[in-house]
């Protein structure tokens, strides 16, 4: 009744015997269990596919809604392209102020050899200001720490008022001690009290005066704004002050009564008294005397 040993074939180990071709009871039970599991899995497969599809759709909708609510994340994923010294992506400056700052920083580069670039952004998305400004510096090659190029990148976030300066290795040797701290302090005070335009002006002025102390120039030497405009503004301000504060009320009372009294009295008394008595008396006497015959 037991299985008889068979001769070893190729690939068979020594002492192995061939099993009976008829499955035993445990084998039949395992086979039936596997068949029932496969049948149940085949029945549940369409339902599982539907749940997976619904889950993927919901996840896609959530991701799209999140990106729609945070447009700055994907809009600023790639740094914008630099254009000149002033890159006002947050649009906090008017055209005249932007052009004025551009000329000042261009003159600063010519006098001191340092490329000072300013970038304003609405926000930095999910990045910190340090990470964003570092990535911007590497993309623009401005203010890179390991670069021998003399450059400074000042990044300003308009949503929270934070700003950070990235300074290259080449520029650090030419900057006086404490110039960045002085610039930061002046900017913070002006941004809080007068806005970004005045804050950036105060920062540029502090940086230019500190750097000019070593290179024999001041901020006034770099500012292209004509001095005539400043003088005209002071004159207008001085002219407006007396008009609004003091109104002269003494002049009309002194001049008006004096002029009519003198002129009217002289004209009335002199002309009527002199003309009537002289003309009628002289004419009759001159005409009557030669008419008598002798």
Index terms:
294 residues; alpha/beta; Diaminopimelate Epimerase, Chain A, domain 1; 4-stranded mixed beta sheet; 10 helices; 4 strands; disordered C terminus
Helix content range of the residues, please? 55-70%
Number of strands: 4
Strand order of the largest sheet: 1-2-3-4
According to CATH, the fold-level topology of one domain is Diaminopimelate Epimerase, Chain A, domain 1
CA distance, first residue to last residue: 213 Å
What's the CATH architecture of one domain?
Roll
The biggest beta sheet reads:
4 strands, mixed
H/E element string?
HHEHEHEEHHHHHH
Low-pLDDT runs: 8-17, 72-76, 230-253, 255-274, 276-294
Rg: 50 Å
Number of contiguous helices: 10
Taken as a percent bin, the fraction of beta residues is 5-15%
Class per helix and strand makeup: alpha/beta
State mean pLDDT (0 to 100 scale).
Answer: 73
Shape: elongated
CATH top level of one domain is: Alpha Beta
Q: What does it look like?
A:
The radius of gyration is 50 Å and the shape is elongated. The protein has 10 helices and 4 strands; from the N terminus they run ααβαβαββαααααα. The chain has a 4-stranded mixed β-sheet. The chain has 294 residues and is an alpha/beta fold. Helices cover 62% and strands 8% of the residues. α6 (179-194) runs antiparallel to α7 (196-215).
